[in-house]
Amino acid sequence: MRKKIIAANWKMNKTVSEAVTFLDTFLLELGEEKRVDVVICPPFTALAKVSEVLSDVSNVRLGAQNMHWEKPGAYTGEVSADMLRELFVRYVVLGHSERRSLFGETDAVVNRKTKAALAAVLKPIVCVGETLDERDAGRVESVLSTQLSGSLADLSAKEFEEVIIAYEPVWAIGTGRTASPEQAQAAHAFIRAHLETMAGKAVADKVRIQYGGSVKPANTAELMSQPDIDGALVGGASLEARGFVEIVKHAL
Ligand code: 13P
Asked: Is 68 a catalytic residue?
């Protein structure tokens, strides 16, 4: 049985003080819930403070939204895995569609980052997903295969098991237009089948696949009841503490 994992991707939102205000309410309302893995991915500037607040909280983990693949050095504006590790970051979102479309990240880049994250014992949340044009052209499966094969190339079976995949159809991100549970399940089943071709059935059965794209309290339960949907990566609806607690509770 795969444990559900619900992650908040705050994107470029929340100052340090706004993050603290969120956590005050969120942690109180969440209570001791441990049946779901909960991850908060604030912007880099808030990681240290959120880490401090979470230091005596056992059921919420810290994630980053990106990292560079290189060891520390002359890479202006970048953040290394070691820097994240020191702040007790456990997860890192890689290859988000906004990174791919706005900042030119390719599957090869995502692969380098994934390997560097794994080498640093960070759990990568590797994002894949098709655009609306690609869906309309009947290319969902070929796009997902290419992204998965490229982003997860040359991982050992043991490394594969540490990876979390986030299926985020680009047309559903920030649009209020969620994939239907059937559409999402079909994509997740395809992703799992593709992982099986890459790493074998035993590994593919263990990998958790999150859905992302306009997840909100009202649609969480139905999405999470699908057999191959193992959690959610939540953008907009993760910015409001009570709503995000509701999403976590609906994942049970
Ligand atoms: P929204 O939940 O705002 O659609 O964003 C999804 C997302 O991109 C999470 O990474």
From this structure: no
- Is residue 86 flagged as an active site residue? no
234 pocket-lining for ligand 1 (C-beta < 6 Å): yes
Note the pLDDT tens digit of each residue in 183-228. 999 999 999 999 999 999 999 999 999 999 999 999 999 999 999 9
Whether the Cβ atoms of residue 39 and residue 6 lie closer than 8 Å to each other: yes
For the entire predicted model, the pTM comes to 0.98
pLDDT tens digits for 88-110? 999 999 999 999 999 999 999 99
Q: Which domains does the chain have, with CATH numbers?
A: 5-250 (3.20.20.70)
- Among 168, 188, 194, 250, which one carries the catalytic annotation? 168
